[in-house]
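Hey team,

Filing this mostly as a record. A colleague (T.K.) asked me to run one chain through the structure pipeline before their review meeting, and I want the input and output archived in the tracker in case anyone asks later how it was produced. No errors, nothing strange. Just documentation.

Input sequence:
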Amino acid sequence: MSAAQFEARVTANTRLGGGYFTLELEADAPTPVAGARPGQFVMLRGAWGRELLNPRAFSVLHAEGSRLAILAKPYGVGTRRMWALRPGDPMTVTGPLGRGFPDPDPDVRDLLVAGGVGLPPLHLQARVAAAAGLADRQELYYGGRDHHDLVLLHDFAAWGVAAHLATEDGSLGVRGRVTAALAPRLAQARANHERVRILSCGPTPMLAAVRTLGLAHGIETLLCLEENMACGFGVCLGCAVPVHGEKPYRYCCTDGPVFDAREVRWP
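Output structure:
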């Protein structure tokens, strides 16, 4: 489905734990974002004049009809502005953009590995799978610094998706990073010749560790990368990703953000 630019308004700005918040928007009519695949994203810009010229990229958390939602955390000027938005405030939306994850497959068990604001693509994948009656083919592996960083867990529980949690301080789930929960599961899958694949999104160091584990076990691993984007559709060329092959780089916005882990050229 092709992307479009349209105007929307804030309908809710909900505070979550760990400084996270969900921003819900609504347009005047159904939008193309309603057909977004897990992993696709939108570019958002508020009525900020010349102070902030570039929009900000956010993975789609949920979209249906004229409504859509994103998950964010105030890191910079743009997200701090969004943190302060109120119902009725206008926003310009462009999307859906990028290439998403594959559809849930009844013959494959998806291991959804999330960290930080990388949760939305896996949240949407679980939602899609549950709607297709495939919740039992999904497993969430979700890590954070402490229990406040693990948000929206009630959704996975409502969908019947098993959640395996990890926190660095041990306040919820296993102590350590998300790979501490994931590694024994991969070993189990390999020993049992179980058909699984990894779908992951989160900070780049986490993705690099997940990539290493997935490749070491010979498991299909798909990474939804997080890169700074100024345009979202391949004009600014600011989101180059080093890859193997004839061309040394591809672009996160148009060729991704979902990449096969074997393709990414990381040390």
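Quick notes for T.K.: The chain has a mean pLDDT of 94. The first helix runs from residue 77 to 83.
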